[in-house]
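Retro notes, item 3 of 5
We never archived the inputs for the zinc ion complex last cycle. Fixing that now. Sequence and ligand:
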Amino acid sequence: MKTTCCRICGHAELLPILDLGDMPLANRFLRPERADEPEPRFPLRLTLCPWCGGVQLDEEVPREVLFDDYVYVSGTSDAVHRHAAWLAESTTQRYGLGADDLVVEAASNDGTVLKTFRWHGVRTLGVEPAANVAEVAREEGIDTRVAYFDERVGDELAREVGPVKLFVARHVLAHVQDLNGFVAGMAKLLASDGVGIIECPHLVPFYERLEFDTIYHEHLCYFSLGVLRTLFGRHGLHVHDAQPVAMHGGSLVVHVSRPGACHPVSSRVREILEQEEELHLRKMPAWRAFADRVTRVRQEVPAFLDRLRAEGRTVAGYGAPAKGNTLLCACGVGPDRLPFTVDRSPAKQGLLTPGSRIPIRPPEALLAERPDVCLLLAWNFADEIMQQQQAYTDAGGTFALPLPTPTLLDAETPAPARLAS
Ligand code: ZN
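Structure as it came back at the time:
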């Protein structure tokens, strides 16, 4: 369904930035016996709101289609667990949370983050739309309500459990169709001195590092801090801090409160806003340049793989993340160029990637097959993967990054600074 209005400010015109054409759903992995069946495809276009600068898709795939045949995977990454522990410790200390306080998390998943808050003695409540996932959290002792968080749920919870001291929403805002309803619910739920912790991928690394592969149908919005300020401001909330973190290719942890709560505004907020202004992220010319760079890398990736093959080198992939599927489909990479990829998640092993139909095997296949080059489709976990797969590099294998330009991470090419987390 095409959307013509901005999800942040309601402006009725969205300007096209990048059109990736009709694309399959990035989390609809295929069983091999269904490889010959056509897949549902939907337009994937990135647009800019000329009024508020909101970068967003202009297409919405209905939830029931999006989550049909969805391969759910709980947090398999050590980095995610470390990050959750840091978030819980730093926020409980900073805001002085104790046994009387309640933390509510929207899209709480299997309770990974809330568990770490409980270690610090804070009461927790999760809100998670997937019933089977909520059940996993409950089995771990994390009280979880099955719902999409929105204005109604925020209102209900405020009445049932009272205003809360801390509201957490990690990597969910980009998925929300009714953004203003979500933030209105958050505003209703927060106590007068409450704080909202919102984590989402940041538009600056998305732009600078050409992370166009993170564009897929589930990610409706791509946020700058400036646009987040506009969004929260519409609901009487303000941003008093923002911390850049390495998670998912570069994210922001944004701290939101009521202006009367007297949290001083951190200098980091101004620094990040200035950085965004310097890149002109609210203006079309910057996005035309971005689209040109994407066009170039869509040719470079297949050319890189063809060159390796011409040199007699074998190639495989690492990871089968949703973002890998945008990259593979947008660059025309199929099993002829990438015979297989490996993934730690048993739920994905044995399946084919959507659109590109590349077989997914367990990580052990990397040592068994010993491809000369391994393309990091899950580049956001590059450090962790390369540490885990030391035996592969010791045996002569070389990792490669696809973006912002395909690069071999061999002895002559030091890993880019982005890999340092
Ligand atoms: Zn707008």
